[in-house]
Structure formats: C-alpha cells, structure tokens
Amino acid sequence: MKLKTLTILASSMIFASTSLFATTTLKVTLQLPLTHSLGENWTQFKNIVEKESQGDIKVLIFPSAQLYKDKQVPQAVGSGAIEAGSAFIGRFAGSVPSVDVVSIPFLFKNTKQLTNAVSNGSKMRNIIDARILDETGAKVLWWQAFGRNVYLNNDKAVIVPSDLKGKKIRSYGKIQGWTAQEIGAVPTLMSGSKQFLAYQQGTVDAGMTGLSAVKSRKLYEVMKHVTVTGDSAIEFVAIINNKVFEGLSSKNKEIVLNAASKVEKALRTKVYSNEDAVAKELEKKMTVTRLSDSQRAIWEKQTIGVRNKFIKNVGKIGQDVVNAATMAN
C-alpha cells in the first residue's frame, strides 16, 4: 500500500515538474522567405529568445505563406489560430484605419522624421499599437521596416506624376490606391507575389512596391524602369496573440520584448542603409531614377489630397496620428 502511494506521489511530482518547465512554442507565419530581410529579422528574434529563455521558449517560423496569406494574418494571430506572425500594416486598416498614416505620400520629409515617428514608444506608435491590440487581440511586438515606395514602369522612366496618367498601376493598399488616383492612374490592388506575372503579361502597366521587392522578386526581369520617389513608408508589423503573451512568465515577457527591441532597430538600420546599395545594384539591370527636390515638390503638391482625405475619413484619431508623425523631428 505504501509502495503504491509512493509511486502515485512520484508520478504526480514528475507531472508537476514537467508542467512547470514545459516549453512554450511560438509558431510564426511569414509571407516572405527566410532569406528576405524580414525572414532574417525573425530568425534573429528566434535565436535571441531561445538562447535567453534557455529553452523555455521555442520559435518555429513558417515562411513563404505556408500557413496563411498576408490578409489572413491579423485574424489568425488575433484569434489564437497561430501564436505570432508578420503582416503588412495596411492589412489592419479595416479595423484600425489610423495604421494607414505611414502610407500618406510625402508625410515624412526625411529618414530621421520617419524613424522617430515609427520608433517604439513614440506618440504615433503608442496610438496605433494600442488600437491594434484593442481591435484585434494581437499585440504588436515590433514594426518591421520594408523600405520606401518606388514606382515601376516599362515605357519610360517615371519623372512626374503625369507620366502615369491613364495607366493601370499595381497598388498594395487603400492609401496607395488613392495616391494612384490623385496622379491620374488607375489602381489595381494586388498582392506582392502576383506582381511578376502581372507585369510579364501586361495585366497592369506600372507598379508600386519597395526596392527590396524589386530585387528579391526579380522584377527587373519584367520591368525596365524604377523611380525612387520614397513618397511613403512600407511597414510590416510583428505581432503575437495577446493571451499567449500574457501567459508567459514575467521573465520571458521581458526576454521577448527586449529581443523585439533589438531586432527592430537592427532591421530598420539595415533596410534604410541598404536602399542606396540595392538601387546601385539594380542599375546594372534597369534604369534607376531618383527625384530631384523640385521634382519631388511636384509630386507632393499633386498628392496632398490623400492626406486631407485620410483625415476626413479617419477623423480625430487620423488627425492625431498625422500630427504625431509631422512633429516627430
């Protein structure tokens, strides 16, 4: 009888010990390959978290949209169908319209202003991150810089907005669609993975994307010209289901947040510093045009209506995030 009791007690202790030190697995859905800067960014996060937590947290990354498409990520993470993931920030615009502030053309005058505006703890970030959590149940861990907007064209290099008048242009969000309309183009909403075939087949005449995408998706094989307008920021957000995050120990929460802070800074520095290098590399494969200050002023004047429309549609919060962005010098 005593032996049986001791056996049950020992088994209970083993179960309790196993439960106490059980590994938390964070599955991550990513649209891009691990070789892309966003993939490398998540790999850096994984390495830091697994090392610092001494195995308490295991991070499994599923790249190249193996599990979810970009538009599905906010709901999948928010609902807990998967623990974490990355999504283009515009995918949250349906429930959190203020996220589109970063897509307003020429709102950011320089890299310093943009960096300050999107940095962790900034006024603009605090407003947007809180809204994403409230509306979706997903906690923003960090923002992932993808680069700044560029225009692709086949006929000739785009210099002024009128060069795109009447053309069907690939866009990747609502604000980009409004921008296309302001310059007289016809926007066609399209995911990044469909660009190559669309340009190759002539489904669209021109396109909006980031420099890194031109390189990684080999768009130079189907488009002849790229114009670096840098008119808006392309941002992704790395998110985690909030219930999962709150279920972590205090120590592991701190490990996750510290790792997020490190990889966010590293990625932004890398992406912004590499844009010139990528542009020079692309010059071997296509024409690369950079706007002069006077040309940029023409674009800014013609697209000012987008900012006004954003504020009108989003309301007070829209005005608040615009003000926060413009004051982030």
Give a description of the structure.
With 329 residues, the protein is α/β, with parallel strands linked by helices. The protein has a single domain, classed as D-Maltodextrin-Binding Protein, domain 2 (3-Layer(aba) Sandwich), CATH 3.40.190.170. The chain is 47% helix and 19% strand. Strands 1, 2, 3, 4, 5, 6, 7, 8, 9 and 10 form a ten-stranded mixed beta sheet that branches. α6 links the parallel β5 and β6. α2 runs antiparallel to α10 and α12 crosses α13. The protein is globular. The N and C termini lie far apart (76 Å).
Any key phrases for this structure?
alpha/beta; D-Maltodextrin-Binding Protein, domain 2; 10-stranded mixed β-sheet; 13 helices; 10 strands; 19% strand; disordered N terminus
Give a brief rundown of this model:
This protein has 329 residues and is of the alpha/beta class.
- CATH topology value: D-Maltodextrin-Binding Protein, domain 2
The geometry reads as globular
What pattern of helices and strands is seen along the backbone? HEHEHEHHEEHEHEHEEHHEHHH
Q: What is the CATH H-level superfamily?
A: Bacterial extracellular solute-binding protein, family 7
Mean pLDDT: 92
Number of helices: 13
Beta percentage is 15-25%
Report the oligomer. Answer: single chain
For the biggest sheet, the summary is: 10 strands, mixed
The CATH class label is Alpha Beta
Helix % is 40-55%
Given as residue ranges, the uncertain stretches (5+ residues, pLDDT < 50) are 1-20
Tell me how many strands there are. 10
Q: Write down the Rg.
A: 22 Å
